[in-house]
Q: What sequence folds into this?
């Protein structure tokens, strides 16, 4: 019996070496990409990194803690406005916008957690959406942010696009690292337990409220940071796009087709989503419909998404979050 | 000797459904108290109350000298009340090993390292070494039931509550469960064991409590209780309905 475990461990050693090599190759390819791939590919990758980052966060909430938010656009919109105000209104540097966006996001998340954490299930979902809608109304009627006219974020035209590319790469990697760190820590056990059965997790001693709040705060900060980058990429902001539910709808699509409750899911999902969006660009009116149909078909074939299906089928553990038994010496 | 757990006049109602009216019993240290009663008697509800999932509308629960009716689920598991679920609620996307580690980390406040070492000991006790790295969702009923016991043990409970851990198992599998209970007895646990299988009550318990219609009908030596007129009436009464 113990042999069984040690062979599993031996296997995992070669496996982790292979993983390390693959990760290194991917990283090197991504690093040299801007120089060999051209502007188009660079821009696609930027979108993949950023959509993946916000989807990792939506997945952290919906996939593990059961907090299904339809209001993550609140953090993206706030971040976008922080960027616009910092750079356009006050002429301050971009890095300051990142810091301010993170701080404002965490404060805003703490404040709204008081009412919305009292809501359960679908009420939480609707509550988050209403808050984002309220922000839209508020910003559209707020003189200080130029009502619905918004801003052109001109600093975006002047930045070095390769530097921006690397920044987005780092944001993407950090979003994975954050989730990975949490899942490998003690809290990861609580999150996986909550994902599988929240009531049972509570009876086993998991404190649901504080675990959910912690994840909500982390998700809002990372989403806001990615939000600043998303608006650097977009280079203009208006209340309609800032607080549009489409931001969160794309996160939902990405996570569901990629595999909810897995780290790999948002990666695969973001790649598919961004590539599909490029293809569907010419069908502007129908693109959401087509994405929706694709999602529905995929859910019928593989209810747990692509990675959920593969992980179950082949017992994959790409990011090494499974706890292993060390053979007795 | 003072009981480790003492329940007095315990009652709960769901609207006009007075599921428990007045339940009374004591559980002594290192004792196995069997609980029988017809389906719907409120046995599972009683465990939900003891663990804090449901709140009693009247009565007292004294655990190790403290009244715990107002304490949270978390406080009670940390104080040392563990349980299994009638329908196993294992964490399906985690391995058996991880399920047990989680019980130790969150139920007993251990470091993950200590909880992992403990998990290996528990895997031995419940006889699940070969399934340690199997996902709980892929386990059969017997193993899920064993895992329930293992996860509950991981929280280092003083009192452990079994909700039909032998229900739905074959005779030889039940023998295996009885073995686990015997081991746990040696380790000093105090156990409340709800079960329909008469054989387990006769072989595995020190005393048996029968509850019906919201009250404790009879409590005493297993063979005496199981052959009592009261128990017969309770079960026949249900059959007549
Ligand atoms: N959360 C609940 N809300 C309302 N009624 C409940 C709840 N839980 C259990 N009941 C009712 O309590 C009664 C006892 O159920 P239970 O404790 O499961 O019986 P058993 O003795 O078979 O374990 C049943 O009539 C059930 O419908
Ligand atoms: Mg029951």
A:
């Amino acid at each position: 019996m113990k042999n069984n475990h040690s062979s599993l461990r031996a296997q995992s050693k070669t496996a982790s070496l292979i993983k390390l090599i693959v990760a290194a190759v991917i990283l090197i390819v991504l690093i040299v990409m801007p120089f060999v791939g051209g502007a188009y590919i660079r821009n696609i990758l930027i979108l993949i990194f950023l959509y993946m980052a916000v989807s990792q966060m939506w997945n952290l909430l919906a996939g593990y803690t059961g907090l299904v938010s339809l209001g993550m656009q609140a953090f993206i919109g706030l971040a976008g406005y922080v960027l616009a105000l910092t750079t356009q209104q006050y002429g301050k540097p971009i890095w300051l916008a990142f810091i301010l966006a993170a701080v404002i996001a965490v404060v805003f998340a703490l404040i709204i957690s008081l009412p919305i954490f009292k809501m359960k299930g679908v009420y939480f979902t609707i509550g988050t959406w209403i808050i984002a809608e309220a922000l839209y109304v508020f910003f559209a009627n707020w003189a200080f942010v130029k009502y619905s006219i918004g801003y052109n974020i001109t600093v975006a035209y002047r930045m070095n696009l390769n530097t921006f590319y690397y920044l987005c790469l780092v944001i993407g990697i950090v979003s994975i690292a954050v989730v990975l760190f949490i899942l490998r820590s003690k809290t990861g056990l609580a999150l996986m337990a909550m994902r599988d059965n929240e009531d049972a997790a509570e009876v086993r001693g998991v404190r649901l409220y504080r675990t959910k709040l912690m994840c909500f705060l982390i998700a809002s900060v990372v989403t806001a940071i990615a939000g600043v980058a998303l608006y650097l990429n977009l280079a203009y902001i208006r209340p309609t796009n800032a607080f549009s539910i489409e931001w969160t709808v794309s996160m939902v699509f990405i996570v569901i087709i990629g595999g909810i409750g897995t780290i790999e899911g948002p990666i695969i999902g973001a790649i598919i989503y961004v590539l599909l969006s490029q293809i569907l660009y010419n069908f502007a009116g129908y693109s959401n419909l087509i994405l929706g149909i694709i999602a529905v078909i995929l859910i019928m074939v593989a209810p747990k998404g692509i990675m959920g299906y593969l992980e179950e089928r082949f017992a994959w553990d790409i990011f090494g979050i499974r706890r292993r038994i060390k053979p007795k010496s | 000797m003072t009981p480790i757990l003492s329940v007095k006049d315990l009652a709960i109602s769901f609207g006009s459904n007075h599921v428990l009216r007045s339940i009374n019993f004591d559980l002594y240290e290192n004792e196995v108290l069997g609980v029988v009663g017809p389906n719907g008697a409120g046995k599972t509800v009683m465990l939900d109350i003891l663990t804090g999932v449901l709140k009693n509308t009247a009565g007292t629960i004294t655990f190790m000298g403290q009244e715990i009716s107002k304490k949270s689920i978390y406080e009670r598991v940390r104080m040392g009340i563990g349980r299994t679920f009638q329908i196993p609620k294992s964490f399906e996307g985690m391995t058996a090993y991880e399920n047990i580690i989680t019980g130790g980390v969150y139920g007993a406040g251990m470091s993950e390292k200590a909880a992992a070492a403990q998990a290996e000991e528990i895997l031995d006790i419940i006889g699940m070494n070969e399934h340690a790295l199997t996902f709980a969702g892929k386990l059969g009923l017997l193993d899920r039931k064993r895992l329930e016991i293992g996860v509950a043990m991981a929280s280092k409970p003083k009192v452990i509550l079994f909700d039909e851990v032998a229900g739905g198992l074959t005779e030889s599998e039940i023998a295996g469960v009885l073995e686990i209970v015997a081991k746990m007895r040696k380790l000093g646990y105090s156990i409340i064991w709800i079960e329909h299988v008469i054989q387990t009550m006769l072989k595995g318990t020190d005393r048996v409590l029968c509850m019906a219609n919201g009250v404790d009908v009879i409590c005493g030596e297993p063979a005496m209780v199981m052959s009592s007129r009261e128990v017969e009436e309770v079960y026949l009464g249900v059959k007549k309905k």
In short: The pocket of adenosine-5'-diphosphate (ligand 1) is lined by residues B 14, 17, 19, 37, 39-45 (CB under 6 Å). The beta strands of chain B are 5-14, 17-27, 32-36, 58-63, 66-67, 81-83, 159-163, 190-194, 207-212, 215-220.
